[in-house]
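Field reference: sequence -> structure
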Amino acid sequence: MIASQNYPDVSVKEYLEGELISPIKHEYRNGQIYAMAGASNPHVLICLNLATLLRNHLRGSGCLVFMSDTKVRFETINTFYYPDVAVSCDERDTTSVGDFICYPSLIVEVLSPTTEAFDRGDKFADYRSLSTIQEYVLIGQQRMNVDCYRRDGEGRWFFSSYGEGDCLELASINFQCPISALYEDVPGLS
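Structure field:
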C-alpha cells in the first residue's frame, strides 16, 4: 500500500465522514487511512475499456459494474478499498444508495509500478477474506498481460494468465473478450 500521508487511528465513522468532503480518496485499513495517488492515462483507459465491456455484457442481468469511486467494505477486517472495477450481483449492493458495496463477485485492479506488490500481496489476501469474491483480476498497464485468480466451489484459488492474442474469460459473470479490447487506444504499450 502506498501512503502519501499516514493519519493516527480513526474510526470507520470518522473515515466515512471524511471521505465525503475530502478532495482526494483514501483507503482504510484497521484505523489507518492512506491517501491514494492519481492514475495515469493508460490506467484510466484500461479501466474505462473494461467497465464499458462489462456494463454492456451485464445490462439487464441484475449485476452492476462499479468503478474506482465506489469503495468495497470488508467489515470483518475493518477495511475499505477503492478497486479500479468491481462487479456485484448481490441485491444488497445493487439496491444500495450508499457509497460502498460489501458483496462483490469480481474485483479488478490495474497494476502500476508503485501498487503492484501490494495489489498482489496484502490486498489480495484481504480480498480473499470476502466470501462473495469469485475472481480477482490484475491487469498490467505497460504491456498486454492479465492475471486472473479464480475461486472454485471448495474455496481454493486457481491462477490463469492471459497475454496478447488471448481471450479473457471471467467465469463469475460468464464474460469473454479479446485481451486487445482492454487495451484499445492505450498508448505506450511495450
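Note: The chain has a mean pLDDT of 92.
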